[in-house]
Each structure stands twice: as C-alpha cells, then as structure tokens.
Amino acid sequence: MTPTAIIHLDMDAFYASVEQRDFPDLRGKPVIVGGHPRRGVVLAASYEVRPFGVRSAMPMAVAVRKAPAAIVVPPRMGAYEEASDAVFAILSTVTPLIEPLSLDEAFLDVTASRKLFGGPAKIAAELRARIAVEVGLPSSAGIASVKFVAKIASDVVKPNGQLEVAPGEARAFLAPLPVARLWGVGPKTEAVLAKLGLRTVGDIAAADPDWLDRHVSAGRDLWELSCGIDPRKVVPDREAKSIGAEDTFDEDVSGVEALLPHVHAQALRVARRLRLAGRKTAVVQLKVKLADFTLLTRRTTLAEPTDDGQTLYRAASALLRAEHLSRKVRLTGVSAQSLLSHNGQLSLFDSDRRAGRLNAALDRIHDKFGSAALTTADLSETPDKERE
What we know:
Alpha-Beta Plaits, DNA polymerase, domain 1, Dna Ligase, domain 1, 3 domains, five-stranded antiparallel sheet, 15 helices, 21% strand, globular
C-alpha cells in the first residue's frame, strides 16, 4: 500500500514578508506589522526583529519596548489576502486536497499527485520555488505521512527551509524535541509532565500509555502523537457561507459621512471576492464596532442576488445611515451572507448586464495592474489597505 504523503506549507512571517516585498527599504530590517501602539497586538514580526523577543499576538506596547528601533507598519489586509489567493492558486495546481489553516498555512495531501508530479519532496520544492518567483515570498515545507509530523517538520526548518520525514522515521525525528512541541501541551501540562520526569517527546513515547493517561489529561493522545500516530486526514476547505471585509481604524472615526468611504471600499472588496468565487448574494450585512466596543450588526435582503459592488454599497450605506450614530467608531465591515452559486443566467434588465460588463472590465484591470489601479472618486483618499 502506498504511504500517505502530506505537505504542510507555511509562509514565513507572512504579513511582514509581504511588506518587505512591496517596500524594498524594509528588507533586512526589523519590521513589526501591528495596530495601534497602545491597544493593538503584533500581527507579524519579521525574522530580523525576533531576536529581540518580539512574537505574533504580543501586545504592541510590549513589542515596542523590547525593540524600540523596530519599524512598525500598519496592516494591509487586502495585500495579504491577494498574496494568499496567489499562493493557494499555485497549491491547487498539484492537488484538490488542500486544507487551509489560515491565509498563510495549509496541509496538502499529495498521495495521488506523485504519478503526475514526482515525489512529495519534489512537489514541495517546486511549489516553494513557484511561490518565490511568482508571488515573491519565502515559504517553508514539512513532508510526512501524517499531519502532525509534517507540521513540526516545517516549524523546525523555518525560515525558507524544507524537511521530509520518511515513513517509519517519525518517532526518531520527534524524540529529541521538548514536550511543548506536542499539540495540547501548554505551560500547565508541561509543568505536570516535568514533575513526572518527562521533558522530551521521546520520554513520552517511552512511557506506558495507560500510566500516562492516569496521570495526565489526554495522556494517551499525547503518547500517540509522540509516536507519530495521527489518523486525521486532510479535509478540503468547506464551501464558504459568507464573504466579508472589515477594517479597524488607526484612530476612531466620527460621523456617518466620514465612514461611508470605508464602507464603500469594503463593499467593493466583497464584490470582487464574490466574483472570484463565482458566487452572488441577496443578503448584505453591515458590522459596526463603536469606540466603547459595542458591536452593531444590521442586515438587509436585496431584491435580486448580485456580485456588484455598487449594489452592495448602496445597501450597506442605507443600513449605516439608518443608525444615526452619535458615538465614534473603531471598526466597520461589510459581508455577503447566504451565498448562491452564479449560474450565469442572463438578467432581464439592461442595467444589470451593463454592470456585469463593467465589473468584468474592472476585474481585468485589477488583475493586470493591481487592485488599487482604478477606484472611485470617494476612495481616492482612503488608505491603501482598504482600497485593496
């Protein structure tokens, strides 16, 4: 029986790498991608800033204290989503069995792909080379017969590395690693294991699983992982039930008129993603988070399903105007709910057909020149991260 071949592909410091790709003056420098320095968190840390102890999800205030000379840049989610789409388009050329974990990380089952593309190490190397050339970003890959081992393999060779753990070698590969590498082992469980004299993955693999299960929560599961046993299959991404776009503002925004350009940009982004996915929606939802963190969500149903950004914007702006906001706003978002397949049926109305042709032309321009190449007048002053 042919052994399963799984690749865990992970982009290296993804958001920070996109910033360094797009802005050459940031290359080789300590870069933090994050929000407001007082209330935000680190979204990504370049490898140049990590020696200072800066990590993702760390409060920005702590990160800036640890690395006062770091360059802090605001996130541009549109740019990251665009890069992610390009990466996943490359991955899909070798297998349909792709399980995304986030924008920058995925498992691939390439067991059946070997007949067409060669061994899994060759497939991973060629995928990484294409990503480097076509998307301009570094990535790492781990290859194994189970998901857990593939994930650990990609972690230990970061950045810009690749490692294959051959079938039958998983236990030896895992043995010298600290127990914290195991899924489910946090600080509390690590302390319990240390009291039992178990400090490496190999120590757990050598223990009696029944004894371990009596002394540690989910002890048998930890024992199985330490032996390289992981029966979970790669599960392709399920069909999306909604498509959305939202932005947290660097400074709270006051007044509906000041918010409308942001909502417009978000509606256009949602519409483009709908068209890329071949979907339409008849339900538009507006999300507003006030300065005091009060969250408002409002939705409306359209007369006809659409993938047109202006139609989505008209619906979302009507919802926003109906709120009569008296407090400042820290976040807005637009989403398309209850998605429908685009069956290609012609509309009875000339205006709908004209909008479809216009959107197709805009998409071609965006594909060729970038998603900020052409925009509407009210978005000319909107930050790039929102226009994109």
